[in-house]
Amino acid sequence: MIDDDVTGKELDRITRAELRYLDEKNNEWVSKHLVMAGRLIDYDPELAYDHALAASRRGGRVAVVREAVGLTAYAAGEYADALREFRTHRRISGSNMHLPVIADCERGLGRSEKALETAHGEDAQTLDTAGKVEMAIVASGAQVDLGNLEAAVTELEIPQLDLNRAFSFSPRLFTAYANALEAVGRDQEALIWRDQITVAESALGVGEFEEPEIIDFGEDDEEPARKPRARDFVPAEPAPATDSEEAAAGDVVENGSVEDDKLESVVAGESADAEENPEIDEAEDFSAADVEFGDGASPEIDAEEER
User: Fold this and answer.
1) Chain-wide mean pLDDT for the chain?
2) Burial of 92 (0-12, 13-18, 19+ CB in 10 A)
3) Acidic residues compositional bias: what residue ranges (predicted)?
């Protein structure tokens, strides 16, 4: 079953490029099953293997599909199937990148001599640094399978075994070397390497020092606060008046002069009435101090963030 959220577009760019030769329908089918295989390989390798097999039914001629089948079969302990798929991937792609896993599959099938033959072959010399380290670990394990404990130590004594330097492969290499030393009774040396495993993991941020993955399942309703800007404190300059506004202002001035004339006439009339009627009480005189304007509080600066 394919998860509802899987579209197939979750695959990396290189994988999608390899699948572009499939028609649209098969491309979508294969892509979705590859995504599911990748999701499940660490949690349910058997189910991941089933998804990879489903992908191979419609994309069996694509190297990346055969690679996925091999990796999931290996994780599920199906070493014969994994060996077949890795060999097919190697034939299609021409890559030796999975040669260490091929050798380990030979070990899983009880053919440790064949594993050593693969590990010591010419093709193994074409591996990158990480691949050579993995091959050394497999070869050491094969020597242990055959009872050659001293040879198992020797297989791991490669240039990448450096007590003072840590690489992504160093914790695994240090662990294998410490185990090999203990197997031959060199416990004090093994203790030094075991201590170095912790140092390497700390430096690389892996193992017990790996940062936990934090997943936010909710949406953050609060937006980050914005620092106040100068424009929040400086009053905006008035915009220049347009021609229409100036014309309107002129009308106000002209109308105002007429109203002033009318006001003068009214005031003159009231004065005359006041002289003719002295009985009228004088109006109360209100001083400015008797009028309260607001509560005297200064306006607050609104520093709320702009959305």
Assistant:
1) 79
2) middle
3) 210-223, 272-287
